[in-house]
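Here is the promised in-class demo. Please do not try to memorize the tokens; focus on the logic of going from shape to residues.
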């Protein structure tokens, strides 16, 4: 299950990229993982936030956790990554 979730997140990151400046909290955040961003440097982030069907933020766990709202589901993926 965890591996499937991480694989889904990897696909979201590779297709959508990250957008910043949202006005309402995300519905889901995944923290403490390895998120391959597929940018020019293939940098690796620790966390991501999803709102509806869109990836809205990718970055360090401490930054993504700050986006959490009262209805946000938080999943700690414990250093997992899609391979």
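The designed amino acids, position by position:
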């Amino acid at each position: 299950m965890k591996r499937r979730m991480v694989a889904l997140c990897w696909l979201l990151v590779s297709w959508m990229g990250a957008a910043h400046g949202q006005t309402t909290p995300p519905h889901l955040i995944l923290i403490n993982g390895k998120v391959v961003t597929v940018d020019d440097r293939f940098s690796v982030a620790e966390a991501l936030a999803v709102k509806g069907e869109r990836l809205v933020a990718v970055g360090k766990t401490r930054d993504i956790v700050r986006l959490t709202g009262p209805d946000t589901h938080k999943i700690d993926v414990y250093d997992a990554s899609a391979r």
